[in-house]
Amino acid sequence: MEARLIDTHAHLFLKDFAGEEEAVTHRARSICEAVLLPNLDSHTLPDLKKLIQLAPDFYFGMIGLHPNHVKENFPEELTLLEQHLSTYPWIAIGEIGLDLYHETSTRAWQEEALFRQAEWAIQYNLPVSIHFRNALDESLEVLRPFIGRLKGVFHCFTGSYEEGKKIIDQGFYLGIGGVLTYKKATALQEAVKKLPLDRLLLETDSPYLTPTPFRGRRNESSYLLYTARTLAELRQLPLSTLIERTTENARALFALPHGRNGS
């Protein structure tokens, strides 16, 4: 396998991996040339940076406030995060967005936080990584003023062809993860057969959404290969071609150097 994968969304800095960082990194390097780390809030930044320091040629960090971490103090949280924007080589603003599955009472706060962080992305010319659980149309509406100027990925896409096309038509990529390997994910499986390959990225969302055959265990970046295999089968492409194409997509969106980690 000449080309290597890029895991465009993994939370390997969380406590789920405490004490196993080197082993998890070693396994990830066996199939990935890079892993991108989306932040959650100001409290997770130290652990995220610490993991990057372990392998700065392999891990690349994002900065942002996750919608599930948007509380009454979110203006202060955003101020804290914004202070770090120009002091570190971030590759994206993320993980940001809306979540109307877990919490609807904070919707107005979430929308304001998303809008402000989209402004950061424009100001610093960075892509965004969007969380949009139960909130596709609502997320696109908040981002509408930035369409044509804002680039990024709607991460953890599990929807239909029509939903995917709506996102792509607004200039964004789709992040495809372990859900693709689930038997009941028929709408997603049909969608990825027809959606443009040059707009698809691969991700794990570790430690969540572990692909088959490891479903039920903690997810990690080395399991990305199983999602890639499933996507290659659905697209009727050689695995090496699928990996090469999705890796090039990730490099293009996140301005990653070509051929990191010896690939």
Structure description:
The structure is a single chain. This protein is of the alpha/beta class. The protein is built from nine helices and eight strands. 38% of the residues lie in helices and 14% in strands. The model has no long low-confidence stretch (mean pLDDT 96). The chain has helices at 21-29, 45-54, 74-82, 107-124, 136-143, 161-169, 186-194, 224-235, 239-254; strands at 5-7, 32-37, 59-63, 92-99, 128-133, 152-154, 173-176, 200-202. The chain has an eight-stranded parallel β-sheet with strand order 1-2-3-4-5-6-7-8, with helices on both faces. The longest helix has 18 residues, at 107-124. The chain has a single domain, classed as TIM Barrel.
